[in-house]
Amino acid sequence: MTILATQKLIKQMTADQRPDRIIIEAYMNVIVKHGDIEDAKALFELWTALPEDYTNELLLRGIGAHGDAGLAQRLYAYSIERGVLKTGLPDETLLTLGYMGVEAATEQLLQMVSINDWHVSANACLGLLHLSCASYEEEIREMLKASFGEALFKEFLPALAHKVADRSIVPELFEWGEKTASVDCNAGLILGIACFGAEEKETIRRILWSPNWEAHGKGTGTGYWSCIAMQHVGLTFAEMVEDVKKLGEQAGAERDLEYRLDVLETLMVHRLTHSYNPIRFMKNSEETTIEWYKALFDWQPEEPGKYGGITDLILKRLPEEDGLLGRYYELERKLEIAIMQDMGKE
User: Fold this and answer.
1) How far apart are CA 269 and CA 258, in angstroms?
2) Please, are residues 34 and 59 in contact by the beta-carbon 8 Å criterion?
3) What are the phi and psi torsion angles at 80 (to 5°)?
4) Is 70 exceeded by the pLDDT of residue 51?
């Protein structure tokens, strides 16, 4: 039997006036957390009934989270036609095939990496992250070799580097992003480095603080993927706040301080707004909203001249940055609401 959230979602999505995207996403968050195979089956039937609905890619989250091998095969048979994604289906289907472990889709996904469509290529790469790819390592190496050092390339191709190399490739990936990759095309590099795990925590930290990466960028969702990456390697927001505090004590560091404060606020808002992690094997942070709040706003200075919190730091070190200060006041309000909501769930 399906859970109540699934029943309500199906009823609303089959009504004459469908719910807004944010409402569907809220239902999906509940279904992903509390549903099971019955919910996945019901969502699959709904998804196939609404093949060209612009919000139907959200349903794939529940299908992927709770579907079994049988449902995965049904999704594969339904969505792949003549080696490519069936016309009209959301590109996220490719990610979901990988997420559900459909090894039979590996060859088709690899072929679609090279398609001249950013969304298709990106989702094909993200799907491949979940699959073995053992029989296709040479093809992946050749694709990476052809792209290495370029400013523009298939953005998520570098995420597959850990499929064909060990950690010794990380310095090359970092240099690629630091020196030549466009800031509009580096999310896959960040994700690819993070795939090597906690050993690359300091590399991800360097990336987040380097203006050459603009790792908090919003253009192609780099900030979102930076959030995924930092969680997987174990870099916490509390540690990032400590970095900001230390920099705030250095004279003449205003420019770097402003940049780091910009990065920190942007990533925190991403984390508050987007809780879904589309990479099954990547870890989620266990930091709580209370821990974020204390790290940002409850510094309790013990010595004269120390700062009382992040907003106090901005007021004293960057007094002309009214916009940045306003963003942190707004973040404080968002965290207060999130804390109340989290405590209400206990």
Assistant:
1) 17
2) no
3) -105, 125
4) no
